[in-house]
Known about the structure:
By secondary structure, the chain is mainly beta. The chain is 12% helix and 30% strand.
Amino acid sequence: MNKIVKSAILIFCLSPFSMMAQTESESTVTPCGASEAIEKSLHEHPELLQNVDELERFTKQYMAENQDKLLDSTITIPVVFHVFHTYGAERISEAQMKDCIRILNEDFQNKNADTSQVISAFKPIIGSSQMRFRLAKKDPSGRCTKGINYIESNLHPQGGENLKSVSNWDTKRYLNIWVCSVIASGAAAYAYYPGTAPGQNNEGIVSRSDYVGSIGTSNSGYNGRTLSHEAGHYFNLPHTWGNSNSPGAATNCNIDDGISDTPNCVGVSNSGCNLALVSCGTLNNVQNHMEYSSCRRMFTKGQVLRMHAAMNSTAGFRSSLWKGSNLIFTGTTNDSQGNECPAKVDFKSNLTRACAGQNIVFTQLAYNVNNPADLSYSWTFPGGTPETSTNPTPTVSYATAGNYSVKLVVTNSAGKDSLTRSNLIRILPSNPSYQAGDIEGFETTTFPNFPSNPDKVWDVTSTITNTWKRSTLASATGQASLMITNNTTTSGSIHTLISPVFEVVGPVTGAKLALKYAFARRTSANTDKLVVSYSIDCGKTWKTATTRSGAALQTTADFVTATFSPSGADWKQEYLNLLFLAPSQQFRLKFEFTAGGGNNLFIDDVQLTTITSVSNLQDDNLSLSVVPNPSGALPKLIVDHRAGEKVKIEIVDALGRTTILSKNFILNEGRSEINLSAEMQKPKAGTYWVRLILSDRVMVRQWVVLP
């Protein structure tokens, strides 16, 4: 229906910013972020409103003059993918991107098999856009390409407009699709209407990696159709209910999408598929690609005509994409694979931090080729064993601590390419840097390095650049502490800190790790998590000492929305049991923080201590006692807890090698007693550990069994 409110301009000008997509602290993904992205761009660049108005006038005239007229032939859209990654699952395969192209072509040409499932009321108005999508075969410099770029970047968990300045191809010649693991706004994907992007290089589609195609990290259901929806926006289609991101709102009846054969509707919320849905007085086209339903199947003829108008308008350069001269420029005149291209070299390793003598497996990831079997490889590992290899997946070890670079040259019939990744591998020092009583208060200005002690190096890795750092903003003692500046825009980022070697001198049974930390949440929805682990085998395996997340991590009485800088009362003292440390007396620590929308995190005064009495290591909300202890008979476990929940009780021998009890219990709020005589047989005399395992922490007590 044509009840659109004086073109898109009035919608965007009147639309309040309260409609912005969810923040990263929320756990769900907004299906589409186009409305918010367009609104923000027009708000910051009001001069673009003229483009919107001119395109809307052109579109109305084009639709009035052409009605059901088809294009003279199928037109081709050259496509390039820019995939941002750090060698995780977000580095989606070439097959997954080609599958996405397949789905786009089927949906835009009405060749998808499930069109047969469109209900009878809408089958007569199914439209075919006569548009095909092809991966580019020539890049902007005329070099051979397969239309895929992989970009190693810490930006992938906080993607958006920031990706476009790192890698883009001429948007007048290519449909650019930027792929990342997480979009900062919380959307699954978004695109701009023609001419509404904040800059020429910003035209295109941004998508999460798990919403590309129907294989690999994505699926054949809702996710697989996401880019068909976003390509609709790219070619000037609003949602079926109009220019908002509020499906289901009754006020949407006053907006609509300006297309005559799409019924006026409020839109489908929560990915439903009620094919009998009636709103605004009419049966809704729930199966439309511009809906949020889980059963999208079709574009209408009116939507096709609107897209054709966009393709013939100069707004946003859509009209230049499909011209014959541009198809020659991009190499997309046909569907053939084209000539073999020189490979683009890439590789990864299963470890970037290891110990002397530890095996590291390298894997080649060359792309941009038709025949991967024809590739040959030449690796160089300075300081490694072996120092060279022609294997696509060589295994290498290093004998001494230090930083090591790796080089790979890949050759095929079309040429060769090389890549050197400097200081890719760090072999960690093995000499101890801390003993009982040593306090790391992060006072040394050169942290994480200590020039006077080359073995004393704290190793920092992160999925973003703003990570663990020494800070003088606040401290529990002294002048400095360790801090993560935790912004809402960095949700999903992972920050890892690995310590130098700690050494216990003497008996290890009383070894504890003392530390102080401070953290504030912004809202109750924050999901930030801190995991502290330790390793006795130089990081090959890690054992969790504690996990704190959400409310359990918070040390303040209230939420803090301003920049958090803790005062004395905000610091919490923690003692962590180094369970199963024996028989080793050396270990490393790992602090792993996953951002979830909260505020800043601070750590100070990390110290190895030996405490023989465990009675003073009570949690603020939890206590565990073994009574009597020592004992000749099976004792009781007494637990005081401020909240009821499911827990696990484990009892292991002194070395942590043999489990003699592992059982789940439901604790009530208050005091609970567990009589071990009803749960197990008395073990032989000796020392044992009793572990109380909760969802966010572990409490450990020593139990001595008398003969």
